[in-house]
Design a protein that fits this description.
Elements: H1 11-30, H2 37-48, H3 54-61, H4 65-77, E1 81-85, E2 93-97, H5 99-121, H6 125-143
Antiparallel strand pairs: 1-2
Helix pairs in contact: 1-5, 2-3, 2-5, 3-4
Length: 144
């Protein structure tokens, strides 16, 4: 048996494990709604920032432009998102939620709530705000 390493004590490793576990649980919860975690993130981001281009949306969601284009094409084909030409930049298409997209987002929020509750419930109440703020600080430091 291999000797235990200190790698499992590294913040980045545990962050990656938590992110993977969260995404897997979220994908399972969203399956009955017909969405993936990637499509849910795209819908939620467009709800907060309507009119984003595919490139801007990919940056906000932390995926490649190609991956986001695939997600957007699927959401558009399902009638959840509509893309229209930008008013002054002819090649840029702005994405916005449709009414069906808003309904799907509401269903996804409801489906994801138990996952979020399990995530938050794993932490003592006095640490929840500290962990959230710490993760934001880490993300901001790496985004710089």
């Amino acid at each position: 048996m291999a000797a235990s390493s200190s790698f499992d004590a590294r913040l980045g490793y545990q962050l990656r494990r938590a992110q993977f576990a969260y995404r897997s649980a979220l994908d399972r919860a969203l399956a009955p709604v017909g969405l993936s975690s990637a499509s849910y993130l795209a819908l939620a981001t467009l709800d907060m920032e309507p009119g984003l281009s595919s490139a801007a949306l990919s940056r906000r969601c932390g995926v490649t432009a190609q991956a986001m284009n695939t997600v957007l094409r699927s959401l558009e084909a399902e009638g959840l998102v509509e893309r229209t030409p930008h008013a002054t930049h002819g090649r840029i298409r702005e994405a916005r939620l449709t009414e069906a997209g808003r309904a799907a987002l509401r269903a996804a929020h409801a489906a994801s709530k138990p996952v979020e509750q399990r995530l938050v419930g794993a932490l003592p109440e006095e640490l929840r705000a500290v962990v959230t703020a710490s993760l934001k600080t880490c993300a901001d430091a790496l985004d710089a």
